[in-house]
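FW: tagging you since you asked about this chain on Friday. Here's the raw sequence from the shared folder, copied in full. Didn't touch anything.
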Amino acid sequence: MPQLNPNPWFTIMLLTWFTFSLLIQPKLLSFTSTNPPTNKPATMTKPTSWIWPWT
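HL: got it, structure written out here
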């Protein structure tokens, strides 16, 4: 069964993983975010209770 032979597929997987890790990932991480996160103050809102019609 050729699916159980890891010889060519393992090498392809390693080459793909190293290509992504060493070439593609640094290029993607160097882009600046168009919407940078901001520090918003935590606002604590008091939840309102439901008014049930049968009580």
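FW: The chain has a mean pLDDT of 80.
HL: agreed, and The radius of gyration is 26 Å.
FW: great, closing this out.
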